[in-house]
Amino acid sequence: MRLDEAVWGLLHQALQLYRDNPRATGHLRHQLARLEQPLRVAIAGPWRAGKSTLLNALMGEDVAPVAGADGSDVFTWYEDGPQPRATAYSASHPPQELAMVRSATGMRVDLVGWRAGELRDIVVSWPTRALRQVTLIDTPAVGGPGEHGRSPVMDRVLRDADAVLYLTRDGRGTDLRVLESGRESVVGQAAPINVIMVLARADETGGGKIDALLTARQLARRQHRDPRVNALCVTVAACSGLIGLAGRVLGESEFTALAQLAAVPRPELEAHLLSADRFLRGELPVPLDNEVRAGLLDRLGLFGVRLATTLVRTGCDSRASLSAELIRRSGLADLRESVNRFFVDRREALKSRSALAAVESLLRAEPGPGTAELLGTVEQILAGAHAFQELRLLAALRDTRLGFDAELAAEARRLVGGDGVGLAARLGVEHDAGVQRLWEVAADAQWRWRDRAEDPLLRLAQRRGAQVVVRSCEGMLAELAEGGR
């Protein structure tokens, strides 16, 4: 049985079990509706981690934050819609449409009349392709684990979102404890499949030197190899949301100003880029008024101005070429690829995981006749669903203790969807390969990995890993037999 069918059946069994409990049945129907909705991706992290800036970069527009000081504890949801609108939700008032006003720092909404702590959610409809497949959630700052070892904000993030981009400065200490606190349930322990850790504000790594973004990427690779980090997320990425957003929205007037600065000999310009105060108030060798200087700092930060002028000086001679290079260097392109590969391409598995977590939580919170049997069903689905087996193998392949050599590990990762879930990506062939070519490569892989799965000289963990790969190959052959590509 397919994973989505098993989860759908489980939800209906739970509905029957709780048929006399209106609150529980409402919650379960909500979970059924979520299976048909876009993937929910929350952007979470501690205070000043750069959540709203990264959300803007992913959307490619200056939209967040929508809330002012009185909305600092609000979850703000961004979903696709025909026209911009914002709706406020609270526990004590009916939904209320809010006035939206664009400001220099994003989209602001009128929160007059709302008391602090009264507003729970703001849902923003915004017409953009970036929100066709996902709903992005801008969250309040995540504090450290409370007296019961849990972060209230992170509890809600894990409950309401299907996947999480967790922003952190260094991926250590409190941030790891917050993520570990979300693994207490059976579903949470199944595999670290719904979290990408993001080393945010990468432009500030190492004191904001010109090689800061490269240093941040190296740090991300080291963090990914840390067993404690590895157990909590599917990958670690480094990204400067500020530089990435600048690349996506850079205007011609901003490029012209940067080109003027780049025309100044580097030693002379560097003296004016030692601090923001010097850049704003010093006597620049080119005529840029204070408003333009302040705009460049707001758009790029001091590091970004240094980087952008260096790029213009070394060949980025148009707004388009500079924008593309800023996006590439920021890590935004790599992060978006990771989001697509690990989240969007596996949205059915992630949404099913959310539904399983919701059912498990309900069964444990309100036990009664039949709940033990349904908890067993949850565990059976987790253990038997091939989508989860693939994700668990991907997690294990990041740990060299599984025992596959580098070449075998790379092939296994590709076949179970680590490089993309399409047939061509899994099989490592050209994207326009014909059915016959796909069939031959899949059948050959199935034969070779079945030999490994049955090899008594291999360790049990290796044979079990090979069995998962064989099952993936069988699934591809079945898809091809049904006319898929």
UniProtKB/TrEMBL annotation:
InterPro entries: Dynamin_N, P-loop_NTPase, TRAFAC_Dynamin-like_GTPase. Residues 41-168 form the Dynamin N-terminal domain. Signal peptide: none annotated. This is Dynamin N-terminal domain-containing protein. It comes from Micromonospora costi.
